[in-house]
Write a structure and sequence with these properties.
The chain has 2 helices and 4 strands. The protein has 70 residues and is α+β, with helices and mostly antiparallel strands.
Length: 70
C-alpha cells in the first residue's frame, strides 16, 4: 500500500513513521520518499492498523490510489 503523510517533514519524522509501522508488523517492508511525503508498505496487515499506530505517534495518513498514471 502507498500512504501519504503530509506532516512527515524530516529524517526524524521518517524514523518515527518507520518505528510506528514496524510496531504493527516488524517484518513489513517500508520505503519512505521524504521529499514527496509518501510511504510504501508491503505487509499483509490491514491499513487501519497502520493508521492507528501512526495516529498514536502523532501522524495522520491518507491512502493513495494505485491507479495508472502515478
Amino acid at each position: 500500500m502507498r500512504i501519504y503523510i503530509k506532516d512527515m517533514a524530516c529524517g526524524g519524522c521518517a524514523r518515527s513513521v518507520t518505528k510506528a509501522i514496524e510496531s504493527v508488523d516488524p517484518k513489513a517492508n517500508v520505503a519512505i520518499d521524504l521529499d514527496n511525503r509518501k510511504v510504501d508498505i508491503v505487509s499483509e496487515r490491514p491499513a487501519v492498523e497502520f493508521e492507528r499506530a501512526l495516529a498514536n505517534a502523532g501522524y495522520h495518513m491518507a491512502l493513495q490510489s494505485e491507479t495508472a498514471g502515478g
